[in-house]
Write a structure and sequence with these properties.
The protein is mainly alpha-helical. The chain contains six helices and two strands. α1 crosses α2 and α4 packs antiparallel against α6. The longest helix is centred in the middle third of the chain and has 31 residues. It is rod-shaped.
Length: 152
Amino acid sequence: MQSENRPEISMNVTREVITDLLPLYVAGEASPQTCALVEEYLRQHAEMRQQFNLSGLDGLSDAPAPALPPDIALKSLRRTRALLRWQRRLYGWAIGLSIATLGGVGVFSGGHFAFHFFLRDYPWIFRPCLGLAASCWANYFVLRWFSRATRL
C-alpha cells in the first residue's frame, strides 16, 4: 500500500540515478514525485546522505542546519551595492569618453570659426580617450556579466 507522502520504491533505483537527481532536488526544481523518491532513497541509504552533506535537508535528519554568521548578509549587501555603483560609474565614463572621441574643438581665428575633430586634427587627444573609453566599456561589460551570472 502506497502512502501519499512516502511512495514505495517499486523499481530498483540505482545510486547513479539519485546522484543525477540530487542537483534538481537541492535546487528545489524537482517535481514532488522526484523529491519523494530522492528523500526515500536517502532515508534508506544514510551513507549517501552523509556523503553529499544532506543531513539538514527537508527533515531527513534531526540535526540542525549550520548557522551562518550574522554579518554575512550585510557584507553581501555592501559588496553588491559597491559592484553596482562601479558599474554605473564605468557606464557614465564610457559614454562620456566615447562622445569625447567623436568630438572636437571649435576655434575662432581671424573672425572665422573652424571646427577641428580630435580624430583628424588632434590624434594625441583622440588615442588616449579612445583607449580609456574602450577600457571603461570592457570593464562595464565584465561587471554586467558578473552581476547577471550571479543574479545580482
